[in-house]
Amino acid sequence: MLLLAIESSCDETAVAIVRDGREILSNLIVSQIDVHARFGGVVPELASRQHLQAICPLVDAALEEAGSNLEQIEGIAVTRGPGLIGALLVGVSYAKAVAFARQIPMVGVHHIEGHILAIQLEQKVEYPYLALAVSGGHSHLFRVDGIGKYVLLGRTIDDAAGEAFDKVAKMLGLPYPGGPVIDRLAAQGDASRVRFPRPMLKKPNLDFSFSGMKTSVLTYIESLAGQLDDQAVADIAAAFQEAAVDVLLQKTLRAAREQGLTRIVVAGGVACNSGLRREFKLASQGEQLAVYFPSPLLCSDNAAMLAVAGDAYLERGARSPSDLNAVSNWPLVEAASHFNLLP
To answer: I want to staple 62 with a disulfide (CB 3.0 to 4.6 A). Which of 26, 110, 200, 249 is the partner?
Structure first.
């Protein structure tokens, strides 16, 4: 099946053309970083307007790069949720219009589902595996038994990890988006000069919490009474990143042991973090685990990642109705059961 995939859940407009849920023919992204940077974060209304401007020319560009046209498209996968409702509506509305005009099937796919299956576009990872989805809006642990078969093991009870990275960067006066800047500065800092807490690390459950860690950073910055030079900023970045990575790593390893899983997929925007990748790879050697990271493009919010589940659902006969609506909150297990794919 030649699939058109559309992602517009936050501040990137993304379109991809994918064959048979595996072969990426094009995967294009229009970023809005420059639009939102001066506000220090995503402004929902501006994001929606940018999606409206970008979606039509981006679909044309993706089709051209794939050497295809709309007449050849056999199905559509679009992010239905979760995300910013106005942004999601742009992608969903475009997908519904094309599906109606061309009389082809369409399926609404869960954003996190796209992330935790994206690795399958680059290498075949056998099921079951443990998936850590970690980004600006999500921090979840799932057992993945197959496409549409997910068990939620743990999630953040407050801030997502990526959100915490961006907020700490803002406290330090660093530009948006802050995650990549923190990662870069952490390499220049000395994490031993300050230690930040590891919230919920001793709790028996697999949930995360990053709000207290963020507050601890703010308290430490205030204790410096304005004496925040470049080295201090780098040290704080290193210490915060070490703490955040430690929590993500230890909870994930615990989940793998409890579930008896030897394969781990780490996905989402924060999966690009060099410290996270390094520590997971080091830990996997001692634990005899196989850890997989999608390439940076497939870790970001992209459209190709939707094609793995989208193609499978359409092949199984699943269809989203013509009155499909976007949803800002949508639990993944509920989304999968919507297509009656769970036993």
So the answer is: 26
